[in-house]
TrEMBL record:
Keyword Translocase: no
Protein name listed in UniProt: Succinate dehydrogenase hydrophobic membrane anchor subunit
Keywords: Heme, Iron, Membrane, Metal-binding, Transmembrane, Transmembrane helix
Top-level taxon of the source organism: Bacteria
Source organism of the structure: Microbacterium rhizomatis
Pfam family, one: Sdh_cyt
Gene Ontology MF terms in the entry: metal ion binding
Transmembrane stretches, start-end: 27-52, 72-96, 108-131
CDD domains: SQR_TypeA_SdhD_like (cd03500)
GO cellular component terms attached to this protein's record: membrane
SUPFAM superfamilies named in the record: Fumarate reductase respiratory complex transmembrane subunits
Major subcellular location class: membrane
Alphabetical list of Gene3D superfamilies matching this protein: Fumarate reductase/succinate dehydrogenase, transmembrane subunit
Amino acid sequence: MTAPAIADPRSPIARPRRKGPNLEKWGWIYMRASGVLLIVLIFGHLFVNLVAGDGIRQIDFAFVVGKYASPFWQWWDVLMLWLALIHGANGMRTIINDYVTHNRTRAVLVWAVGIAAAFLILLGTLVVFTFDPCLGVTPDSSLWSMCQG
């Protein structure tokens, strides 16, 4: 009596080897390097915002205004934003490549993730570098005296 045959597992999609740089390898390296850097950036961000000073009680509009008045904190937050969004988009691209078998669907999804990440990077960068606490302040606002000088 012979044992029943086990079906072969689904084999990966055969894609021809392209000439040029190995983008999968560089994506893999980026994920590791950005992950380590993100840990430093995120825990530094959390420490400054939640532990140092008065802790969470210090976070209000004035805290954000003071933080974004410094180019150091602007670049810190922008670097964190860029790394996190590219890291997440690259992870989504990897998941799409692993699980979507139809070539056109895979291409559309990868492009959609890339466009969404690029849009969020652009929007987030604009918010950080063009942040103006006095924009739209009226005379009856509590910020009016601060914005007059």
